[in-house]
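Lab notebook, entry 410. We have the chain sequence and a SMILES string for flavin-adenine dinucleotide, and the next step in the workflow is to get a structural model of the bound complex before anyone spends time on docking refinements. Request logged below.

Task: model protein plus flavin-adenine dinucleotide, output C-alpha cells.
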Amino acid sequence: MTAGMGIHGLRIAIIGAGIGGLTLALALRQRGMTAAVYEQAPELTEIGAAVALSANATRELRRLGVLDGVTAASTEPSALIYRSWQDGRSIAAFPVHDGLAYQTRFGAPYCGIHRADLQHVLAGALGGSGLQLGHRLVDLAESGDGIRLEFANGQSAQADLVIGADGVRSVVRRYVTGGEDAVYSGTSAFRGIVPLSRLPSLPDPQAIQFWMGPDAHLLHYAIGGGGQDVNFFAVVEGPKAWSHTGWQAPVGHGEALAAFKGWHPAVTEMIGAVEHTVRWGLFTVRPLLHWFRGRAVLLGDAAHAMLPHHGQGANTTIEDAITLAELLATASPGRLETSLGRYQAMRRARTRKIQRSSRVTNDLLHLQDGPALADRDRRVSRFPEDFGWIHAFDALGSVTGSAPISRPAA
Ligand SMILES: Cc1cc2nc3c(=O)[nH]c(=O)nc-3n(C[C@H](O)[C@H](O)[C@H](O)COP(=O)(O)OP(=O)(O)OC[C@H]3O[C@@H](n4cnc5c(N)ncnc54)[C@H](O)[C@@H]3O)c2cc1C
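Result returned:
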C-alpha cells in the first residue's frame, strides 16, 4: 500500500480521521495534495458529545468551503454567561449572537455542534477519497526510502511523511518522543445531551453558560440547527488517581447528581436528565519539546491535548491542520525538515500558552465560597478582553503574514 501523493511527489499518510486528520486532508487537497488517511475505527461514528467551534477555527472552515454545512447543523450561543452555582446569580454576561457581537469582533461565528455532525460535514467534503477505515496503526519505523507503517489488520504502508493526528493516546507521539504518555489531570467529567424541553428551570437556554462552584463547574450550550438540544459538560475535582485503562470509569447510579448536591435546579435537572454510567477522566499531554522526528510529525491532541476549559482542543487542532498544510504546500523541494521545524515553532508557543491557561482556569472555576470570589468575579468579567487573542488568531494568516482579526469589543 502506498500513501497519498503530496507536493513534490511526497507520499503523505495521516493517522486518525478525527477533527484534525479530516481537516488536514481537506486542507491538503485544497492545495493540490492528496493524503491517505488511516483510521482505526471500522466506521466514522464520533462518540455522542458536542464541540464548540470559535472564530479561530470557523474562519478556517470557511476557507475550506465547509462552514455553511457546519452552521446549518449548529447553533450560535446568544451570549456567554457566568453564573454562581447555588443561586444562579449572573456574574458576567457578554453578547455572542445577540447583535452579532462575536462575529463582528472576530470575523467568523461561534458554533455549538454535535461532534458527529462536524465529522459528517468534514468527511462528506472529503468524499471518502483516501480514507482507509479499520486501520489501527501499531508500529512505524523509518527506513532508507521513507517510513513504514504497520497496522493491526496485518496491512502495511510506505510513506514519505506521516502525520500523527491520532489523538491523546497517540502511537505516533510515542515514536516521535520516545515516550510521553498522556497525564491524568486529577479532574473528571460527566457529559450528556438533553432536549431543552426537559430543562424548565434553565435561564437563558440559548446561551453558553458556566456555572461555577466549589470543586466543580458545569458548562453547557445549545446544539443542533434549531438549538433544540443542550450539550453539557460537568467537571469535578477527582478522583485523585486514574486506575482505568481507558478514558471512562464506571460510576454508580446517582453518583453524578450527588457531586452537584445543593446546586441550582437548572444544573441538577440537566445532570439528572441523563443516566450516567461512566465518568470521563480528563487527560493532557505535557508540553512537548519536539513535535516531529524525521518523517513523522504530530498534530492536535497527539501534540497538545489540553483541559477543555477554554474550549480550544478542537479549535487549536484545526489551526494546526491549516498551518501544516500551508507550510507543506509552500515547502521547497527536499526541505521537508525546514517546513516541519517552522510548523513546530509556530504552533508550540501558542498551544502551550492555551494549555497553561486552561489549567489556571480550572482552578478559577472551582473556587470555594469565600473572599477569593470577589477577585474571581473581576477576572471572569475581563475574560473576553483577556482571551480575545485566542479567538482573533488567524492560522492561515500566521503563515502568509497577515494580521490577527479583531475589532475592539463593543
Ligand atoms: C469532554 C470534552 C469536551 C471537549 N469540548 C471541546 C470544545 O468545546 N471545543 C474544543 O475546541 N475542543 C473540545 N474538546 C477537545 C477536542 O475534542 C479535541 O481536542 C479534538 O477532538 C482533537 O482532535 P484530534 O483530531 O487531534 O483527535 P481526535 O478527535 O481524538 O481524533 C483522533 C482519531 O485518531 C484515531 N486513532 C487513534 N489512535 C489510532 C491509531 N493507532 N491508528 C489509527 N487511528 C487512530 C481515533 O479513532 C480518532 O478518530 C473536548 C474534549 C473533551 C474530552
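Notes for the group: The radius of gyration is 21 Å. Worth checking against the assay data. The first helix runs from residue 19 to 30.
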